[in-house]
UniProtKB/TrEMBL annotation:
Pfam families: Peripla_BP_6. It comes from Phytohabitans suffuscus. It comes from the Bacteria. This is Leucine-binding protein domain-containing protein. Residues 43-385 form the Leucine-binding protein domain.
């Protein structure tokens, strides 16, 4: 299914000329005045967990920018209350993430949001559940995070893009072609590869081999070469790769320098944000599956993408969008609480916020507290004078 899209840079210039305030009025929901939040002078404190140092800082910047943009467009209020936003440095591992969460809980946060490192969520699970303070994750979350009461996701389950790609490629790859997988050997990489294999067809003879690498967020300049040499001899026509950030950048650089020609398909984080800029021309032609593209043509995205580009002089990533939506979800939940909300009341109302009018398209929380949402196929192509993740079609609705 082809989805509506816009030429981003031309259209966003037009939208920016009209102004975000005008779009905010035009894109307002159909809620009646009776449903508007009661304004209060009592502030609410929201804790934002995001990497401010280390290799994941680029994702952390997106998380901060997305949440702050929603506040800017809504008079720095959530549910009618002025917001005290407190940010803590997530760092690069589970230990530093837990320290950040502990710090924000000690400061009396009503709710938490953020978390760039999917693997770190398992390390803070008991802390969040024990504190009974909701956390809305805004990057990938592991599929193993089951049975939680206070951890929600405004982004996606790590294996969702792999599921969307596996189903798509099962029908798109010719019978004579060969498909190989390359992924890190950590829990997230194995879950994603398993989901891809399951949806593509575990016994399908086109799926030839999985090549595993060590899990690292900052690989060296020769890190992938032994694996790529094996991949090259496999004669694969299509390669599924599961990496993000600096690891994705190094994979593409070494892949191109080794002269491999197989078409790369990957989850959307592979070419998100500054990773795409760092890859440069070497990213051309890569296909990804993601729950968001900056050229989606809907009213909520016109407001969001226009305001984001004007504020930061770059197109928003899916992580920035998810953080923006986390603020929107908290706005609704706090509004439903009324009066002086408690963390437990906010958590209860998160289950009642209903459908979200999001830049990604409408979505809602499912029973496991993760999004039910559409997934899209994108390709890195020229968009004006630069390469961008250009929207091609809708893949599936998952969740």
């Amino acid at each position: 299914m082809t989805v509506p899209q816009i030429d981003r840079r031309q259209a966003l210039k037009l939208f920016a000329a009209l102004g975000a305030a005008g779009f905010a009025a035009a894109c307002a929901s159909d809620e009646s005045a009776d449903n508007e939040p009661q304004l209060s002078d009592d502030p609410v404190r929201i804790g934002l967990v995001a990497p401010q140092t280390g290799p994941l800082k680029v994702i952390g910047d997106d998380l901060v920018n997305g949440f702050q943009l929603y506040l800017q467009l809504n008079q720095n209020r959530l549910g009618g209350h002025p917001v005290q936003l407190v940010t803590a440095d997530e760092g690069a591992d589970a230990k530093s993430a837990k320290l950040a969460v502990d710090s924000l809980l000690q400061q009396g946060a009503l709710a938490l949001t953020g978390m760039a490192n999917s693997a770190a969520l398992a390390g803070v699970r008991d802390t969040i559940e024990g504190a009974t303070v909701p956390l809305i994750a805004t990057n990938g979350v592991p599929g193993s995070l089951q049975g939680v009461l206070y951890i929600w996701s405004a982004s996606f389950v790590d294996s969702d893009p792999s599921q969307a790609l596996g189903g798509y490629l099962a029908g798109a790859v010719n019978r004579s072609q060969r498909v190989a997988m390359v992924a890190p050997s950590d829990d997230a990489g194995r879950d994603a590869a398993d989901k891809f294999r399951q949806t593509f067809g575990a016994t399908d003879t086109r799926l030839i081999e999985t090549f595993w690498t060590e899990a690292t967020v900052a690989p060296g300049k020769d890190f992938f070469r032994p694996t790529l040499a094996q991949l090259n001899t496999s004669n694969a026509n299509v390669v599924y790769a599961f990496y993000t950030g600096p690891a994705a950048v190094e994979f593409v650089r070494q892949y191109r320098s080794e002269g491999l020609k197989a078409t790369i398909y990957a989850p959307g984080g592979f070419t998100e944000g500054t990773a795409l800029e760092d890859m440069g021309e070497e990213a051309a032609g890569i296909f990804t599956a993601m729950n968001y593209s900056a050229d989606l043509n809907n009213a909520a995205n016109r407001l969001f993408a226009t305001a984001y580009q004007r504020e930061h002089d770059l197109l928003p990533s899916a992580s920035a969008m998810a953080s923006y939506d986390a603020a929107q979800v908290l706005d609704r939940a706090i509004r439903l609480c009324g009066g002086s909300p408690t963390p437990q009341q906010v958590n209860l109302m998160l289950g009642r916020v209903g459908q979200i009018d999001s830049p990604r398209g409408a979505w809602q929380f499912n029973q496991p507290r993760t999004p039910q949402q559409r997934w899209y196929l994108r390709q890195v192509r020229p968009d004006g004078q630069v390469l961008s993740n250009v929207l091609l079609s809708e893949l599936a609705t998952l969740g």
